[in-house]
Amino acid sequence: MAPASKSDRKAPLDAAAWMFNILTSVGVIMVNKALMATHQFSFATTLTGLHFVATTLMTIVFKWLGYIQTSHLPLSELIKYVFFANLSIVGMNVSLMWNSVGFYQIAKLSMIPVSCLLEVVFDKIRYSRATKLSIVVVLVGVAICTVTDVSVNSRGLIAATIAVWSTSLQQYYVHSLQKKYSLGSFNLIGHTAPAQAMSLLMLGPFVDYWLTSKRVDAFDYNVTVVFFIFLSCIIAVGTNLSQFICIGRFTAVSFQVLGHMKTILVLVLGFFLFGREGLNLQVIFGMILAVIGMLWYGNASSKPGGKERWSYSLPIDKSQKHGLLSESGEHDGKV
């Protein structure tokens, strides 16, 4: 009865974690879209640095309240994580600036197979045929509804490649570091947020000037812009925290696959809030296909053998394998 009871508790917590991530991610995207498109605040890297300042303040409060306990993360691991995380942020911004929207979307989609490759190489994960097919359906569905014009240039290709690999590695390390050093989501973000805030605030203004030829300190700030920046930072705290929670509970691949639900919601909200130009049967079909693929992936990967870790140390019979191996990080730890 105990395992069943634990499973019953896990399911609603998993669903709550996903919903928290989806709502905060979509919220920060919509606020940033209004901030940058309507008010011409185009300093994305500096804004991300401010997001991590707000997240750092949150971790200080949580530590004071006792929700974050003292823990250890080696400096070498912290530097490695912050390097890939910051490279991901800068790479995605540069990729968006230098590539067409269509190629940018293709680059984002390619993070799923790259994340799969990282799990296969480093964690010895094996995917079932149904799990692989469900990922393909998600990729095709999202591509149909998001990929339009596709033009490639050499510098844009380099930027996209850096963005894809650094983002995939950053998300992989979120899951890996939590397991390796027995860190909770709050503990890990308590280590990484201050380092990212400091480094991005030092780096951000120079990167933004390089990309936009505008100085963040020379921007004409007003009450509305400051309010949107503040709102973006508040929502981003939830986005950063929920990303660590979701990847810690699942894996980077699951986060990428099911995370495309955010892409679908952003499209739907964009059509309703910013006009329905571009909404057609092809887009609707792509959305439906992507949602079907996500549901299929959730079902296929949760079944025994759907997504499991190879174990070479001891022979395990079929019944034992079904009992021990699953997608969750908790079960992976037992293996």
TrEMBL record:
Ranges of residues in domain Sugar phosphate transporter: 24-297
Domain of life (superkingdom): Eukaryota
Main location group: membrane
UniProt keywords, alphabetically: Membrane, Transmembrane, Transmembrane helix
UniProt cross-references to InterPro entries, sorted A to Z: Sugar_P_trans_dom, TPT_transporter
Molecular functions (GO terms): antiporter activity; UDP-galactose transmembrane transporter activity
Membrane topology classification: Multi-pass membrane protein
Claim: Transmembrane helix is one of the keywords in the record: yes
An individual GO BP term: transmembrane transport
Subcellular location: Membrane
Stretches that traverse the bilayer: 12-31, 43-66, 78-96, 133-150, 156-174, 186-207, 219-238, 250-273, 279-297
A GO cellular-component term linked to this record: membrane
Protein name per Swiss-Prot or TrEMBL: (wild Malaysian banana) hypothetical protein
